[in-house]
TrEMBL record:
Family recorded in the similarity comment: Belongs to the PPR family. P subfamily.
InterPro entries xref list: PPR_rpt, TPR-like_helical_dom_sf
Organism: Kalanchoe fedtschenkoi
Keywords annotated in UniProt: Repeat
Residue numbers spanned by region Disordered: 49-74
Keyword tRNA processing assigned: no
Protein name from the UniProt record: Pentatricopeptide repeat-containing protein
Top-level lineage group: Eukaryota
Amino acid composition bias (Polar residues), ranges on this chain: 49-59
């Protein structure tokens, strides 16, 4: 034996065995990097590995006292660092290209289904639904292992994209494999069907979950269906379904435990449809069943009472909420401020906003808009302006509704120059005016006799991708007549008729009589 080999043997005897394990692991990780770099760009790998402590062999293997997750490839048993690969995979800068490269890597190295599922879930969680579908297809076409979990993610992706047909196709594949569909995926499909107005199909799908698939619905599935039904104006169907479930007379009554979220959603739905009696029935029922209402439940109840003009009952409900130790949120206060605005009680609305701030809730743009609307209805334009200035001083960005109220207030007091300034400021901030904004300003301009400015504003409708409605034409015809622009009013009137608009009674009123008195030759045509 040579002196060098004998020295090496002596060193090995003195070193602990774990050192060789660490060195071996480091070599495996180096080999892993080389393999991944064959499929992914150098720049992306460099950024992905910038925080991987490879310089320290021990921390490369162990981080925070726990071994970093690895998965074994199908060939050669090489260990691949899952977090490292996911980090590379999730670099958004790579787009579809990096997805394709990692897919090729998984196909060539025959990665196990656990890794494929982890990467699919990562794509789904980051909202990259198209990439997840493309990744699955590449795996499936190349016969890389997938299972029911992979198909559940696929079903969720199709549902999020609104592709209900393809989502049901994924359900069929799950059933073909002998598995029951995932409840979360079916809940997404339920939501899609409701959004598309396919209510009967949504209810049938809910029923089929247990009858045909053996996947009993839970409170999440039920809550999704109730939310979808109420959002599409079908609270009546949702209420009847709720009765079947609670009474235990339905085919899945015993499987669904109705929780506070379900009750709150249903209460909100029936309140918006004006069924306060049913909302109160549900509120009492949930308490009798030991389900405690939360801030959302109380806010929905207060909103329903305010919509029904029951202000005293709404106040009582608010005080009851405080007595129960439930902190009202910004939604609760906004409901009350909006109700006070409709009753033209500006002083009380302002006091309520002060209380809101004292209780630690910051008013939002809707709070300020409701308060502005309240002062506008009281005819206090200066106070509307003060609230708007206060909103901006707090760093809150006004929206289109806020500007519409401000412009409307200025126009009401014939302060057209200030209204035009507010309109221009709105455009400069990148906000797109709606047809209400333009109609309000048009009416104000024509009342002030600014016919040319009104015509110019009308011509700007196309710039903002707005289409004039019957209100727009009525304002223009009426305004032109009042400014003695009879010929222009006539031309506009017949333009409207030729476009087959359904003319309202307003446009045939006093303004049209003035046209007839001045232009008898047009009477037969009218």
């Amino acid at each position: 034996m040579s002196p060098s080999s004998s020295a090496a043997a002596i060193c090995r005897q003195k070193l602990p065995a774990c050192i060789f394990t660490v060195i071996k692991t480091q070599k495996q990780k180096q080999k892993q990097k080389q393999q991944v770099q064959m499929y992914c760009s150098t720049a992306q790998i460099a950024s992905a590995t910038s925080d991987c402590p490879e310089s320290n062999p021990r921390t490369a293997t162990i981080r925070g006292g726990r071994r970093r997750p690895t998965c074994s490839s199908g060939e050669g048993g090489t260990n691949f660092d899952l977090k490292y690969l996911q980090k590379t995979f999730n670099r958004r800068s790579g787009g579809a290209g990096i997805v394709s490269n990692v897919a090729k890597f998984c196909v060539d190295s025959r990665q196990p289904v656990s890794l494929v599922n982890s990467l699919l879930i990562d794509l789904f969680k980051t909202g990259r639904y198209e990439d997840a579908i493309g990744f699955y297809r590449k795996m499936s076409c190349n016969k890389v292992g997938t299972d029911s979990k992979s198909l559940s993610v696929l079903m969720n992706c199709y549902s999020k994209l609104g592709c209900v047909g393809y989502g049901f196709g994924a359900v069929g594949l799950v059933l073909k494999m002998g598995f029951a569909p995932n409840r979360i995926g079916v809940s997404c499909l339920l939501n899609c069907l409701c959004e598309e107005g396919r209510i009967n199909e949504a209810v049938m799908l809910f029923r089929k979950m247990k009858e045909a698939w053996g996947c009993a619905p839970d409170e999440v599935s039920y809550g999704t269906l109730v939310k979808g039904l109420c959002a599409t104006g079908n609270s009546e169907v949702a209420f009847k379904l709720h009765r079947l479930i609670v009474d235990g007379t339905s085919f899945f009554g015993g499987d669904v435990q109705v929780n506070c979220i379900c009750y709150s959603t249903l209460i909100d739905g029936v309140c918006k449809d004006g069924r306060w009696d049913r909302a109160n029935e549900l509120f009492l029922e949930m308490r009798s069943k030991g389900v405690e209402p939360n801030v959302v439940t109380y806010s929905s109840m207060i909103d329903g009472l305010c919509r029904g003009g029951k202000w005293d009952e709404a106040k009582a409900m608010f005080y009851e909420m405080l007595d129960q130790g439930i902190q009202p949120n910004v939604v609760t206060f906004n409901v009350l401020i909006n109700a006070l605005a409709k009753m033209r009680k500006g002083k009380e609305a302002k006091e309520l906003m002060d209380l809101m701030v004292k209780r630690g809730e910051e008013p939002n743009v809707r709070s300020y808009s409701s308060l502005m609307e309240c002062f506008y209805k009281e005819g206090d334009v200066d106070e509307v302006q003060n609230v708007f200035i206060s909103l901006e001083s707090k760093g809150i960005e006004p929206n289109v509704v806020t500007y519409n109220i401000l412009i409307k207030a200025y126009c009401k007091e014939c302060r057209i120059d200030e209204a035009i300034t507010a309109y221009n400021q709105m455009i400069e901030k990148g906000l797109k005016p709606n047809i209400v904004t333009v109609n309000t300003l048009l009416e104000g301009m024509l009342l002030k006799g600014m016919v040319n400015d009104a015509q110019k504003l009308k011509n700007e409708l196309e710039v903002h991708n707005l289409t004039p409605n019957m209100v727009t034409y009525t304002i223009l015809v009426d305004g032109l007549c009042k400014n003695n622009c009879i010929q222009e009013a006539l031309e506009l009137f017949f333009t409207i008729k030729n476009r087959r608009f359904r003319l309202g009674i307003e446009i045939y009123s006093c303004s049209l009589k003035k046209i007839i008195r001045n232009k008898f030759e047009y009477i037969p045509k009218i």
